Amino acid sequence: METLKLQAYNMIKQKIIQCEYPPNTILNEEKLKDELNVSRTPIRDALSRLEQESLIHILPRRGIIVKGISAEEVEQIFEMRMLIEPYTLKMYGKTIDKPVLTEMEAFFSQYFEDIPYEVIHKRDDEFHHLFVNASQNAYLIEACKIAYIQNIRLRILCGNLGRDHILKSQQQHLKIARYCLEEAWEQASALLTDHLCYSKQASYNIITNLQILLNPRYY
Fold it and tell me: pLDDT digit string (tens) for 164-200?
């Protein structure tokens, strides 16, 4: 059973990730306490953890602000992913069970026009997590957690990037899965790098074009 601290942390975190608390929202301890029906101590503990995860910014005597994602942070998120994901795929892809890769290949072979966004995004995330988790390196896995959380927020802020992006990503995922099944790890890793570059540029363009520079300076 979750403790009150963990409940408060998970509830606030999910609202931030799903943009129920959009970037630049000012959070109030009293309102959070009433909304979540918990005391001040679990709220403060949750907010402290969320600040460490770069989801909020606590300003002494000024309040708590939900952090946004700037164009610079898009670059940083994908820089980290491009350093870690292709490496773990190349080094540890062979440890992934073949039935798992076969199932992924089957999913990305489907006609995506009939599949809901949320299902596609869930499987997309699982596909990328697969390679990092295969490393069984707790430090790499933990390092990627924040980037993956921010990636979900980025996806929502960018309006899910549209069907054209999804269909392009589908084909890239499918080719990566097939290279993995062929145990062509170098080719799979190179294509994964290309895929992340494509996703970074698509996200960066939307953030820039819509001027969603949602991480103001705090003075």
Answer: 778 889 999 999 999 999 999 999 999 999 999 999 9
pTM of the model: 0.82
Place of tokens 């003075």: 219
DSSP element (H, E) containing 57: strand 56-59
Rounded CA-CA distance 87/78 in Å is 14
Terminal CA-CA length for the chain: 41
CA–CA gap between residue 130 and residue 114 (Å, rounded) = 25
Beta strands in the chain (DSSP E): 26-27, 56-59, 63-66
DSSP 20: S
Closest CA to 146 of 53, 81, 22, 49: 53
Angle at which helices 98-108 and 117-134 cross, to 10°: 150
Least Cα distance to 45 among 23, 61, 29 occurs for 29
In DSSP notation, 59-87 reads ETTTEEEE----HHHHHHHHHHHHHHHHH
Secondary structure (3-state) at 58: strand
**Residue position matching structure tokens 């390679």:** 131
For residue 31, give the amino acid letter: K
Q: Which of 87, 70, 38, 60 is nearest to 193 (CA)?
A: 87
Query: CB-side exposure of 174: number of CA atoms within 13 Å?
Result: 14
Ordered structural domains, the chain, with CATH: 4-66 (1.10.10.10), 71-209 (1.20.120.530)
pLDDT per position as a tens digit, 95-109 = 999 999 999 999 999
